[in-house]
Amino acid sequence: MTSASDVLRAAFDRHTWATLELIGALEALDPSELETSVAGTYGPISQTLTHLIDADDRYLARFDDPLLPSGPGHRTEPLDRLRDRVVGNAQRWSGKLDRLDAGTLQTQIIGKNDYPDTPHAEGMLLIQALHHGDDHRAQIGSTLGALGLDVPDLDGWSYWAAVHASG
Hints:
Layout: H1 4-26, H2 45-62, H3 79-102, H4 122-146, H5 156-164
Helix pairs in contact: 1-3, 1-4, 2-3, 2-4
């Protein structure tokens, strides 16, 4: 029987898988293509991907530091470094979900310009991480499509087929 915890863990496993799949697709690009942006997106592919992973780091840290300042914007890191960070964050997400299961994941957000005071912010941070990742992965997909390049299929169907396919 599938539990609510199993579903949430699958959502975060898919979050990690989708980002790693995207990095794999981006590794085949010419470096100049990584600096492409299209209107309506965060910015160039390299900045958008770095921003996505920087934000995951901040969401994870906010569980333990309600006063954490906003992070730097518009920076880039090499794909191999980003891949390592995603793998490390997968372990950190699992640890947070372990704490959620144990009833010991309790956090709040202390209000400032970009966040209101939010007691019991656990759900908000978990939802935001998943949404934020999908949003920016889609923006990168839009940029790849605008360049006429292949866009990796990162939806839930593809994740399930790749990771949970039997036989």
